[in-house]
Amino acid sequence: MERSMDTKSSDSEKRAERWLKQAAHCVTRMKETIRLSCKTVLTGVSKKFLDHEISENRSAVATDVMQPWKTKVLEDFEAWLSEMPDQAPTALSVTPDTCDLYTLFSEFTALKQEIKMQNREQHRTLKALNQIAAMTDAYGEVMDHFNEKTKQIAALEHNIRVETEKRTVLYFLDIRDSLVRGRAACPAAVSKKGFFQRTPKNMDNIRDGYDMAIRKFDASLALLDIQPLASTGAVFDPMTMKALESRAAAGMEKGTVVETVSGGFKRGDEVLRYAQVIVAD
């Protein structure tokens, strides 16, 4: 649209420039025609009569009969006639019929109509540009609303994923507690001896199997940024632990965790499950 508008404007400027040149040429031709007519008329008058008229005019000036501005006009006209060549230039030897006032005013009228049409086209273009600007603003508002909703949806998806992972992992934490209890039962099974009770064979391999399973379990939890909380032998922390009971324990200070019933876990700064412990009294 802008290219079409620039093309029309350029054509109008070229046409206006061409018309102005034609008008100036017509005015020059008319001036030359008037000059040739005056030259022809004055040539028919005898030099003696012309000198006589000039002398009378000068005498009138001397006697203050003629106004000063008239005297100046006559002097300028006389100087202009004396500078004119006897033969007219071939480029300017034209007749008044080649360029008349009707043609000149017709061209100016056409130019005026062309300018009006160009103004209407510019008005339409400006109106279209304003509409496009309004549509652009509306599109920007829609895009801002869309981006805001996209961010809200992304945040909602993140919260759903985190909550789903947390609920799913809670069921597997009990399995880890079972592995830990099985690992802790190995030394007790070895220490029990009796006449009718045999010591389990390959107990070391069983203990190593528990250790390996617990390590793999913890590695899988670490992929979800879930870490177990140390509890046994640590000072009771109400922010991460829940005391189920208290008992006397030899060699342990009051408030120290004697036994962990179920382990605690956290994800970042959030506690997924509090450790259930027994505290020394």
From TrEMBL:
Pfam family, one: GrpE
GO biological process per UniProt: protein folding
Keywords from the named record: Chaperone
Keyword Chaperone annotated: yes
Molecular functions per Gene Ontology: adenyl-nucleotide exchange factor activity; protein homodimerization activity; protein-folding chaperone binding
PROSITE patterns, A to Z: GRPE
Keyword Chaperone attributed: yes
Superkingdom of origin: Bacteria
InterPro entries, A to Z: GrpE, GrpE_head
Protein's UniProt name: Nucleotide exchange factor GrpE
Originating organism: Desulfobacter latus
Gene for this chain: grpE
